[in-house]
Amino acid sequence: MGMRDPSGGLTGAQKVAAVALAGALIGGVLSPVAFGAVSEPTSTVVVLEVEGPIESTLADDVETELRDIRQNDSVGAVVLKMDTPGGAAPASERMYTAVQRTAEEMPVIASVQGASASGGYYTMLPADQIYVLPTSITGSVGLAASAPQETAPVRGPSGPNKRGENTIQQWATQQTLADTFINTVMQQRGDEIELDREQVATAAVFLGVEAVQNGFADEIGSTDDAVRAAAQQAGLDEYRTETRETGLDGFPILIQTNEGIVAVYANDPGYGQVEPLGNAFVHQGSVPHVDTVERFTTTEVAPVGGSVADGSGDNSADDDEADDEQSALRPPTVEVMSR
């Protein structure tokens, strides 16, 4: 007996419909996988928080994070969440260069929170757009530095330039740094800024609304608005956000280790694992209330080992009494007792 054709009872139209249904089911299963493979490399918008005074540690973190972002195919855009008053010129230059390199590879939007002035404004100049809040402070284009001072002559220098710069040379160096800042502003935002070079060089600061009006910023908006703009520029219909922190965060926990005292900050990866010892009680001392502190004059406290006049005499009883009075003024000491 021959095998029965399972489709023998179907008409031609029914066979076509069955094939179409099977194709739709297979496509429905495989298409998300294929779509995910295509969209995944550009599905993340990173929000990089740049907060606090600009110094070498912050510059190190910003350089490291932006380098990692550029090497990560899953990142399609970056938002710089800026809140800094500025800081050191070399560190600001390093951060500017890192932002510039990143902006050459993907959209970069800056979002100013409380302030991004001086070196902070310099850092975010390569961004495609600058978003500010109405109360944000930005600007302060210039250089703040101590006035050069005459130094004592150096005896026996090993070379003609070993003695360092004179006052005129120091002024020239500072002016060069200031000119570099101003030139960069005019180069990066010259088409947007409504002020001339002399007005920019006054180092004025502007609130958000005024900054948008004069071209120091582009849009009034929050960080969420900046994220949406960055995603739109990157062509991301669906994306997720990832926040990264830089710099030192708050006051550290000081931990005694075999290598000495180590400072652990809140944004350190091991911060969450710091716990008190399970087998110890720590009794913290308290400072006595000011009303309970008895004040003494110099004539009321006996000198140790005798009188001041003759430097002799046995005042052991007075010494003991003075020691007791001083001990009463001391706060309790910190004690650590094992269970």
CATH superfamily of the largest domain: 2-enoyl-CoA Hydratase, Chain A, domain 1
The parts where pLDDT drops under 50 for at least 5 residues are 31-39, 278-298, 332-339
The pLDDT mean sits at 74
C-alpha end-to-end distance: 89 Å
Helix-strand pattern: HEHEHEHEEHHEHEHEEEEHE
**Can you count the helices?**
9
Coarse structural class: alpha/beta
The radius of gyration over CA amounts to 34 Å
Tell me the major beta sheet.
Answer: 8 strands, mixed
Q: Class of the largest domain in CATH? A: Alpha Beta
Strand content: 15-25%
Cα shape: globular
Count of β-strands: 12
For this structure, the CATH topology of the largest domain is 2-enoyl-CoA Hydratase, Chain A, domain 1
Second-tier CATH architecture of the largest domain: Alpha-Beta Complex
Tell me what you see in this structure:
With 339 residues, the chain is α/β, with parallel strands linked by helices. The chain has 3 domains: 38-147 and 164-244, 2-enoyl-CoA Hydratase, Chain A, domain 1, CATH 3.90.226.10; 248-275, no CATH class; 276-338, no CATH class. It has 9 helices and 12 strands. The protein has helices spanning 12-39, 56-70, 89-103, 119-123, 167-189, 197-200, 208-214, 223-234, 316-329; strands spanning 44-51, 75-84, 108-117, 129-132, 137-139, 205-207, 219-220, 240-244, 253-257, 260-264, 280-283, 335-338. The strands form 3 sheets. Strands 1, 2, 3, 4, 5, 6, 7 and 8 form an 8-stranded mixed beta sheet that branches. The chain has a two-stranded antiparallel sheet with strand order 9-10. Helix 3 links the parallel strand 2 (75-84) and strand 3 (108-117). Helix 2 packs parallel to helix 3. The longest helix has 28 residues, at 12-39. It is globular.
